[in-house]
Amino acid sequence: MIRSLWVGTVFLPMSLVRRASHTTGDYLVNGVEQLWENGGVSDGPTPSDALRAGGSSLLRRIDMRGANLSPSHLRSALPRGGTDVDAVLPTVRPVVEAVRDRGAEAALEYSAQFDGVRPVTVRVPAAERERALAELDPAVRDALEVAILRARAVHADQRRQDTVTTVADGATVTERWVPVERVGLYVPGGNAVYPSSVVMNVVPAQTAGVGSLVIASPPQAQFGGLPHPTILAAAQLLGVEEIWAVGGAQGVALLAHGGTDTDGAELASVDMITGPGNIYVTAAKRLCRSLVGIDAEAGPTEIAVLADETADPVHVAADLISQAEHDVLAASVLVTTSEKLADAVVKETAAQLETTVHAERVTAALTGTQSGIVLVDDLSAGIKVVNAYAAEHLEIQTADPVPVAARIRNAGAIFVGPWSPVSLGDYCAGSNHVLPTAGCARHSSGLSVQTFLRGIHIVDYTEAALKEVSGHVITLANAENLPAHGEAVRRRFERS
What we know:
Helix content is 41%, strand content 15%. By secondary structure, it is of the alpha/beta class. It has 3 domains: 14-82 and 300-430, Rossmann fold (3-Layer(aba) Sandwich); 86-169 and 176-294, 3-Layer(aba) Sandwich (Rossmann fold); 462-493, no CATH class. The strands form 4 sheets. The chain has a 6-stranded parallel beta sheet, sandwiched between helices. A 5-stranded parallel beta sheet has the order 6-5-4-9-10, sandwiched between helices. Helix 11 (248-257) runs parallel beside helix 12 (279-288) and helix 13 packs across helix 15 (359-366). The longest helix has 19 residues, at 138-156.
């Protein structure tokens, strides 16, 4: 998952965001529960509405049997949510500029205003990290250790080796892979706590050889202005020694610009920022992108399931619900050759919603325009559909899933067969759950060791090797009307 979290800690007054709607893809504030209380998603059915209708309002149908499956048609016909980062840039820009100009003091002022607490210092003391780990539930610690172990095993195999190419006698080009020097990892706060996001961001960065890591996570009033203790504990398990109690756009801006802490300690700026957040965090990352590198502009999480008549509707429904649990803007899409399965999944989804903890949030997602069931003629058509959709997470639940998975070109991650649910990838598969959303899997990859590496070309030619190719260099320079380029080569041989 790119843990997009368009809910949680944000910093706009309700008057600016009450128009939030799961059907329009507008913006959320202070968590899903408050949105429902304030009518932010009142244009959609509640769980009780959906259940009274026997689930008929869940997962709208899109019948593509016999339809034109050209890429342009599919892009317009498939369910897709909308988020407009541009719309919040005017609100986020002053926050970023204030932190740029006044550093930590401005960031702490925004924390007091929006998080309801002002930390004593931005940097979390080591004793607090140690205490958080000591007090961590042993079962949670065991689970985190398994997740870390498996993630490290997978990411270790992603390391790249330097390559040396001999172009001609005396002419070599080396590609050397160098890690980013200092990286800021954003870990969201708000209604939920995501230690798994700590694992998924830290492990590839450490494996790449990043020398300096800092985690930024919102301060929590209930924990005395510290980030959630489970976040601190996960960081301690991973050996991350620098954690800042700052979140939202102000946290991103402080990572990018740096500053001085209240105790006079330096808060060094970073070279790159990774990690998910709500739409305001995403907007801040966009505004800071010219100064630092970023991983991606994360959107709401999404799951697509490609299934035939052999799929178990209980599994499919549970998996669709699992991703809808994140966010009212989350997308859950079933692509199937079987109308019978589609009916069974809707019925099973309604039944499971009766005991789902976050039923209102899930229902909002499953009844939104970003979710639905797509009916197709056969698996070949289904493959065309899911390749066009380019889901963040794609499950293959068919009679013979392996060859089907081999035909998938566009997906953030592919989960093969009934025993590889997305939830496994979210936590303990070893794969990374920070993945491209909103169709970006057509051109982008998930977070990996490569995210934190830079390839540098090292060109090493002898005099003879340069002389051999000098005429071609001069010819091309003149063809582009850049004669000084050619002169830089020619003059080396004037006195030879």
